Amino acid sequence: MRTRVSWLLLFTVSLAATAGAKDKSKAALPEIVLRAETAFVVIDPDAGEPLDHPTANATARDNVEKALMQWGRLRLVPVRRMTPSRCT
């Protein structure tokens, strides 16, 4: 749970840093990210499972997947189909 909160805080700070950038001519994300059509959700293997809520990681992953499907911008790829040679 702490790892998830840390990642969320890092993501929020990075968004705030790019939002206040003065050079608006530069893209905030690389072109390959902006043109992405597929995505997959991965839980950090070092995150561990909280003792008070052992299914927290799976619940968080499910919530993120549902939100991405509702957004409709990206097609989700099941993690089990990804191989190390395809993850670059």
Q: What features would you describe in this structure?
A:
This protein has 88 residues and is mostly helical. It has helices at 2-19, 31-34, 56-71, and strands at 38-39, 75-76. Strands 1-2 form a two-stranded parallel ribbon. Helix 3 (56-71) links the parallel strand 1 (38-39) and strand 2 (75-76). The longest helix has 18 residues, at 2-19. The radius of gyration is 16 Å and the shape is elongated. The model has no long low-confidence stretch (mean pLDDT 75).
Distance between the first and last residues' Cα? 27 Å
Provide a count of the helices. 3
Shape label: elongated
Strand arrangement in the largest pleated sheet:
1-2
Structural class: mainly alpha
Helicity, in percent? Answer: 40-55%
Q: Estimate the mean pLDDT confidence.
A: 75
* Secondary-structure element series: HHEHE
Instruction: Give the domain tally.
Output: 1
Furnish the topology, listing elements before pairings.
Elements: H1 2-19, H2 31-34, E1 38-39, H3 56-71, E2 75-76
Parallel strand pairs: 1-2
